[in-house]
Queue: 2 jobs
Job 1
Amino acid sequence: MPLIREKAFTTMNKMQKALAELSEMDELAARRSPVHTLHPAAKLLTTIVYILVTLSFDKYDLSGIVPMVLWPILMFTVSGVNVRTCFYKLRIVLPLVMAVGLFNPFFDREIMVTIGGAGVSGGVISMITLMLKGVFCLMASFLLMATTKIDSLCAALRKLHVPAMMVSLLQLTYRYVGVMTEELAVMTDAYHLRAPGQKGIHISAWGSFLGQLLLRSMDRAQELFSSMMLRGYHEHFHYADIDRFRARDALFMAGCILFFLLLRYGNIARLIGGLVVR
Amino acid sequence: MIEFQNVNFAYEKGKEVLHDMSFRIEKGESVGLIGANGAGKSTIMKLLLGLLYGEGKVLIDGVEVKKETLGEIRAKLGFVLQNSDNQMFMPTVYEDMIFGPLNYGLPREEVDRRVDEVLARLNLEYLKHRYNHKISGGEKRMGAIATILAMEPSAILMDEPTSALDPYNRRIVINTIRELEQTKLIASHDLDMILDTCDRVILISGGRIAADGPAREILSNKELLEANRMELPLRMQ
């Protein structure tokens, strides 16, 4: 059953939906699959290498970058995470990423390829390449978050000797987003109950609304922090217990990186194309 | 043992919230802290927990509450917050329950043993792997109590433990509190609950102790309660 049950959200306001979606990421990450059980450091490093390899393609190398989609597809299949869930959750960021390179066709008009007599400019190719780069990187990041709990990810970062202060900040920020969204949901409800028929928050209320949101979320964050302190928290989280880095984790990493390098330097699309086109 | 020795506290200079307050709670006692809004109940709790510091001495098991002793003090005290959402900040009940004991360096096996024991004692085994955002208010309150019990504190402080609970969940929380053997200090406006769970009551008014004595005696004193902006518990009316 798909995780997003849109009908169930019809009675929630936008902020409550956002909160529910945020919580769903935790649920996704808690599932069991061969990808979920991999060592978080292996997944983290593999994702970083994937992103670096994806970004390293030349802006005109469209045929080279297309096969990079194979890795996310494989990961979605093995992890059991729904691709629709990924695109649904990334719906706000995706248009921004897609907008990158939108003006390229206007500046770079040199015809580079002719398809069926129609010329395709370098601008169009670079625009599509940039869009694909963005989409692939977002998919890879989403996959990492959907298959790894934030606490495990932080534990992996610590194992990789990332400073504790930075890791704690990441973990607290992740929790703080939830707190702030909860407060925003309550305030938005309170506003709309006294402003029936109004869409969004009127511009005249923005200042006080944001000020109140900041103060309220700071109060709650303070209370949360006190609750942590009272249970022995002392500047450093006790990060999740993660398994040892096993041979299968190393194999996964090595296999994936080899695969990326093959895609990067082998140009699979051209090889396959060469088989069917003279 | 919890002790306040001539404690004064002010959030702002010249506006004292607590005046020369002294009381002592013996080991195993169950004490209700009552008073109107702004009387100073929360301030007393915060001073005990080392979230605030005032003049005078606050002692827990003979150890003075100060920055250097906070680790030791907080390992002895468990605090159940009024808003369970602020207490249950981890994704699942289990993760919340292990947060404290792990921070105190207990080995994982011991922590898991404690978690299972506490959940079994409170009949909450079914909550163990539930997500905090998906459980009811009553379950969350019980979960918050469980997170504290997993730390095996010698004293438990509670701030309005029955607020915003329906009668059924309120009764469950009351019964749970009654069964706890630890020293308890419960701040609340729910005087019927205080009557059910506490042997002794400290009535605070304007930052001073207006009365300190057996719960039944103080909570049946209509004049005293009304003079301090409170009412008789429903059961006494």
Note: Chain B has ten helices and ten strands.
Job 2
Amino acid sequence: MPELTYIQAISDALRQEMRRDQRVFVLGQDVGVYGGAFKVTLGFQEEFGPWRVMDAPLSETAIVGGATGAALMGLRPVAEMQFADFISCAWDHLVTVAAKQFFRGRTPVPIVVRLPSGGGFSGGPFHSQNPESSFAHIPGLKIVCPATPHDAKGLLATSIEDPNPVLYFEHKHLYRRIKGEVPEERYTIPFGQARVHREGDDAVVVTWGAMVHTASDAADQLAGEGFEVEILDLRTLIPWDKARVLESVRRCSKVLVLHEDTRTGGFGAEIAATIAEEAFEDLDAPVVRIAAPDTPVPFSPALEKAFLPQVEDVVKSLQELAAY
Amino acid sequence: MAVREAEPVGSLQEVKEAGLDREDLLGIYRHMLITRAIEERGHILYRQGKIPGSFYTGRGNEAAAVGVATAMGPNDVGTPLHRDMGVHITRGVEPWRIIAQYMGREGGPTRGRDGNVHMAAPELGLHPMVSHLPAMLPVAVGMALAFKIRGDRRVALGWFGEGSAARGDAHESMNMAGVRQLPVVFICDNNQWAYSTPTYLGYPIEHVADRAAAYGFDGVVVDGTDVLAVYREAKAAIEKARQGGGPTLIECLTLRMEGHAVHDDAFYVPKEMFEQWAAQDPIERFRTWLRSNADMTDDEEDQITSVVKRLLNDALERAEESPLPDPSGLEQGVYASAEDLDTPHHK
């Protein structure tokens, strides 16, 4: 099985879907000749032509709204935002139009919006955000946050196949840093099924995206201390695998919820509240949350390091959980 | 470059050249009467407390809506707005379903999930508006993009008002449609009042259609009370788009003859303005034209009037028979399943 980077897996998955299904097309800024801001669609225009790999003007509203219209007419658009941060310019078209369309009119909107997200390289306040929880609050949207090359490929195929608007958050800091084995053949991964990234019974870390790897490094450090931590990668936030999370809580009795997005109103709060409602009696310690502080994402490396949850933050919280 | 101002339509011969026979003309008249009647009936029902929420009408816009919809081809699509009841009627949405929609019944096109004119009839090429105008313009552009990618000889129509022309969606849509020369026709229902805001506070140029030049396509202003002129201009624009000639912006000039919604008495509209536009009421104007140019007889007129009356009475009866939606089903239907994609318009 070939070993691919996370970004290569996304690119391969998209190419495979476009070869397989004539209805799939790509729409976004600089996706054509340039191959996309991060080169996910490099070479696509030569293979699929200028109408299936369409360079759009700087018009996020027209890109996402246009994707909705094309989907209503039977195509399967994959829209690219250059950075997840810019989705704010298309908020209305996701939240007002696409998310509510099926509920009102019974006409599905099978669109995928690819959202390069996350920090870790001094992108500053406008090129580093993780806005997934804002959209998780909107009924009608699905939220996908792959953490590995294998999941990135399988979840992109599922996203394109899904009859609903799907926000596909691809973490930029994983693009070229994370490698893994990825089958060449097409496969899909069902939404709403968490993946056990690391086994353990002493505590569970519930997380997704780049934080899966942060948690993994922390767990490795604690393994030497005889404290085995399970890492549960949610993979999709809407729908999220509540049953699997509760199962782990009941087994491990200690929980850390970890995300890179800011704390207040982050999706971790939903997870913590659900655990409090449904598994309170199984807990041996209060649920711990680690998230970014409630500030915009800062630019300076010194500040960004303080903003992003670090391996040592996770180690410290897990040690406290172990001692509780 | 000044935008073109369309001439009124004159003789029956001219109309025939535009593709309408006498039966078509009587059909247009009937559609205009149904459009007004359904909104008048709705207003009564609203006052009786039978319609929840608010109630909007398009009085004064009947010719603009029916004229454009008559020019659409059977496989064309559009996103009509709350002043465009005539589009729904012309495309064949059954009046009982519209009243059921008003009343929040299961039989309405949105099954009580949405109200007033926020309706869909995808099988008739109509997709439901949202309140955030002109958010349907990017959607219409996307529909046109799908036609262009697939090589379909179909056209998308996107409606907006002169008020919403101030929003960025209008610019992004027209710009992208112009860049890609997409088969889309933009219809501006310019009824001169965005709630209480007059045109001179909404845009600083003479006509909204003047902007078309900035996007690289044609604009035209047409008297929105002249159903035949609207039809002729819409037909020309739609067929041009179908032939690969790109977008057109058609501005239909009317006056909103009532308030923004029924709670609004429109005190801010000068009385003389209402009087002036009442004198060119689109339905009366077309009726007069039919009598002098197409020899519409008293019998024909009576027959159309009684057909419309009967249709409305039946519609109300049937709408009232439609049950209220079952709250236990509320949480189903937020997300589509794969089978929901198995519809003709998704193929």
Note: Chain B touches chain A through 49 residues (CB under 8 Å).
